[in-house]
Amino acid sequence: MKTKKFLLPESEIPTQWYNIQAEMPNKPMPLLNPLTKQAVTAEDLYPIFCRECANQELDQTHAWIDIPDQVRQLYANYRVTPLVRAYGLEKALDTPAHIYFKNESVSPAGSHKLNSALAQAYYAKEQGITNLTTETGAGQWGGALSYATKMFGIDCAVYMVKVSYEQKPYRRSIMQCFGATVTPSPSMSTRAGKDIITRDPNYQGSLGTAISEAIELATTTPNCRYALGSVLNHVSLHQTVIGLEAEKQMELAGEYPDIVVACFGGGSNFSGMAFPFMRHNFTGKTKTRFIAAEPAACPKLTKGRFEYDFGDEAGYTPLLPMFTLGHKFKPSSIHAGGLRYHGAGVIVSQLLKDGFMEAVDIDQVESFNAGVLFARSEGIIPAPESCHAIAATIREALKCKVEGTSRNILFNLSGHGFVDMASYDSYLSGDMQAYHISDDELEKFHSHSIVAGGLEEMS
Amino acid sequence: MKTKKFLLPESEIPTQWYNIQAEMPNKPMPLLNPLTKQAVTAEDLYPIFCRECANQELDQTHAWIDIPDQVRQLYANYRVTPLVRAYGLEKALDTPAHIYFKNESVSPAGSHKLNSALAQAYYAKEQGITNLTTETGAGQWGGALSYATKMFGIDCAVYMVKVSYEQKPYRRSIMQCFGATVTPSPSMSTRAGKDIITRDPNYQGSLGTAISEAIELATTTPNCRYALGSVLNHVSLHQTVIGLEAEKQMELAGEYPDIVVACFGGGSNFSGMAFPFMRHNFTGKTKTRFIAAEPAACPKLTKGRFEYDFGDEAGYTPLLPMFTLGHKFKPSSIHAGGLRYHGAGVIVSQLLKDGFMEAVDIDQVESFNAGVLFARSEGIIPAPESCHAIAATIREALKCKVEGTSRNILFNLSGHGFVDMASYDSYLSGDMQAYHISDDELEKFHSHSIVAGGLEEMS
Predict the structure, then answer these.
(1) Cα–Cα distance for residue pair B207/B226, rounded to 1 Å
(2) Cβ atoms < 10 Å from Cβ of A403
């Protein structure tokens, strides 16, 4: 019998996260205070984030950071996640490529998001924080943080992007089942929410707006901090357990990836899968290609600009040096709610700028074509976000077929789609439309988002 | 770090199923032809079931039956499933009991049902069958068979109990995503469906009715057979991979179960978990207790009668010697759609009669209390069906606490609840009512279901 799943015991759960900031050739440029234009310090971030997360955010020194025992113990509920050889998909594509996927969908919350949620809830508890707030798009992050906070006895308030709140009632129920409070965003409960509802009463929300609301609640509530599910460096750090495990599992399979693929919203699952492998490219030991698959409706990596911009709609965050469509960008209501974010994390932005990775944009019909083919060949219904990674994988696998070349392609199955069946309904019924945002629209959003002072001036 | 998950490699997937019929002290009484009252032969069943399944159904000779390689290869997509020590639940209950669960929710279809679906689809393919029909209650079985038939290139038509079709649209979408055709039952597409709609236009359906419709389609369509997801002996046989794996995994944990618990609809997940352990009770080597947890709204084991009855509403099946509420029983619309079946499998019925197992009935509010506590302590949202097993486990764990005794309790987590969040919504909002069916109602259904000829007369 051919081995399909490459498993490792709990004892092989990594004991340290990999901090790529310490080893990347060009460090990310500093975050800036939008008023003073001075580099932000960890202390500046303490009112928003837990101290340890703020420290990790700016740590460009330590390549390896210990995973606390309690976090590892909770990782053991679902980790080491399986690495799977996708024989079924290979056969369906009739490709000489060897396709592997890391199955993060087996987490209790249904996605990779729990890897950082557990760490952030732990650090909050250690610091004596009693409340965490956050935003959620697809609901994956909100579900993960709801569960993680419950594990550590912390109250959790989630602002859920309105379009997801309505499209994905089951995601809301999951968060409530874990005991969290869930509010659709934009809401009237914050100044940021009121402002945008006043300007656009029908606005369906975005991650950028929900982040503004959550930060506002965190900074105006005693003993409360904000937890973010993607974009930031410390989130990417926590996600590196994915790639670190995958590296050992690929060894079990006796192969090394020529191509690593993940979908891309803010960057957390991409970073978590890619960074541990990318460190061997830095030393010249390997030449793996890294492909971020973003939605054609929100193409910050392929069509955004590298500049200082806010991480949220209202402008509460520091200025981040990143590929962005502008913080006023309003993504269309595509089904992959978790990918509807205007910017990319600063590390990934620097790596893309420096040529260490690539990006492709995938329209949602292509993504669901890929997702249904995967479901019918591998039996797992992928999250709409993960469908983008599968689509990019299929493009590469079909190139292998045309060229008659075998390559090892490894993608991250970031989550399952059991709670996204309404989106599959839309696809299967033929209602779903392909959608690429036009250059004119991109220009319009960008011009509304320009932050005073150009990139050179500020850095 | 305490070990939480007990894992085994793919090579440890059982190579044989355990056929308890060959070893139980009193064999089940024969199935009877309702017209002739003669014992049914395997050949009599060939028009309905695939030949190999019909043969397995009546096999009282071979204790071990080889699992075909292709089935084992597909089992490897998700098996060996984890055995998990529920430290979180133990802590939440403050019990000295050691609680373990076998996590069948990690299957691609989200439940244990795939264990038999893959076997049945394989045997159909081997026989040259091109179409399979089935019924589904909760949608777990339908989803599993949809996936399994897709793997073997067989067309699949599913009759889905109407109340589930409406309560669980995501389950329907999952089946469609795997390429199956789904019809709400009762439907106008069969005589059986038409008859019952004529009598009761608002009838919300039951497994018994859906079975009638599926059998009718199978027996009136060329090259088509019927596949059942529970109740029957060959289905229980295929499910024994659960208990066989669990036995090895409990060895890894260094313990043996004092109590084995599973929820009970028709008996497939209970049988699969219990039978491999029960064989050691037969020889006197162990004294494990086996508890079937059924819904208080459909209490065939605790309040049914042991007699010959039909397996379906319309009376298309052979007469089965079983604990039954009567084949005309119309269960109330509880959320655990998979447990709304009027009868118990013939093997389980004999074992209950002979005192080898026990049964408890659980109302749905108690079951969701248990499910939410489990979600908040173990992080996994259980299927409403599985919540019954958790509730029965909690009862036993609390008894241990009162008695100050530690026992090893093993339950089967038959499936996850990601697609059942509407039911959790109902519970969390306080709308859900506890419900026990009254003795008067049970009597009424029973009196409408009496099959001509008593048990003694026929057997």
Answers:
(1) 14
(2) 10
Is 50 exceeded by the pLDDT of residue A416?
A: yes
* Per-position DSSP letters for A20-58, written without gaps between them: GGGT-SSPPPPPB-TTT-PBPPHHHHTTTS-HHHHHHHT
The per-residue pLDDT for B452 is 59
DSSP string, B268-284: HHHHHHHHHHHHHHHTT
Q: What's the Cα-to-Cα distance from A370 to each of A111, A155, A332, B173, B372, rounded to whole Å?
A: 19, 38, 21, 17, 34
**Residue with token string 């519970």:** B427
| Residue B229 and residue B235 in contact, taking contact as beta carbons nearer than 8 Å | yes
Amino acid at A373: L
Q: Specify the pairing of strand B155-161 against strand B131-136.
A: parallel
| B151/A379 touch (CB, cutoff 8 Å), yes or no | yes
Give the pLDDT confidence score for residue A452 in this predicted structure.
58
> Residue A333: is its pLDDT beyond 80?
no
Distance CA A263, CA A389 (A): 5
Pick from A224, A230, A190, A189: nearest CA to A207: A230
Residue listed under structure tokens 């909760």: B138
pLDDT exceeds cutoff 60 at A458: no
As given in the structure block, the two tokens for residue A333 are: 């209501």
Nearest by CB to residue B421, choosing from A174, A376, A422, is A174
The token duo for A159 is 């602002």
- CB-CB neighbours of B181 under 10 Å: 14
* Mean pLDDT, residues A122-129 taken together: 98
> What beta strand segments (E) does B327-373 contain?
358-362
Amino acid occupying residue A297: A
Residue entry with tokens 């259980």: B382
Scan residues 9-48 of A and list those with Cβ closer than 8 Å to B: 9-11
The tens digit of pLDDT for each residue in B355-377 reads 999 999 999 999 999 999 999 99
- Best of A170, A174, A380, A432 to disrupt the B interface by mutation (most B CBs within 10 Å)? A170
Complex ipTM: 0.89
A202 CB neighbour count, 10 Å cutoff: 6
Pairing of strands B16-18, B64-66: antiparallel
B434 at the A interface (CB within 8 A)? no
The alpha carbon torsion through B376, B379, B384, B389 (nearest 10 deg) reads -90
Contacts of B7 in chain A (CB under 8 A): 7, 9
Q: How far is CA B299 from CA A38, B69, B126, B270, in A?
A: 70, 38, 38, 15
Query: Is residue A75 classed as helix, strand or coil in its secondary structure?
Result: helix
Contacts of A385 (CB under 8 A, 6+ apart): A138, A140, A263, A265, A336, A337, A338, A339, A414, A415
Q: Looking at the whole model, is its pTM more than 0.90?
A: yes
Tell which wins on pLDDT, B425 or A313. B425
The span from the CA of B237 to the CA of A108, in Å, is: 29
Question: Which range, of A371-375, B47-51, B192-196, B448-452, averages the lowest pLDDT?
Answer: B448-452
Strands (E) located in B116-194 = 131-136, 155-161, 181-185
**DSSP secondary structure letter of residue B418:** G
Residues B146-168, mean pLDDT to the nearest whole number: 93
DSSP assignment of B162-179 equals HHHHHH-HHHHHHHHHTT
Beta bridge partners of A224: A131
Burial class (CB in 10 A: 0-12, 13-18, 19+), A189: middle
Determine contact: A90 vs chain B, CB below 8 A. no
**Helical axes A346-353 vs A268-282, angle rounded to 10°:** 40
A153 at B interface, C-beta within 8 A: no
Query: What is the predicted pLDDT for the residue at B458?
Result: 46
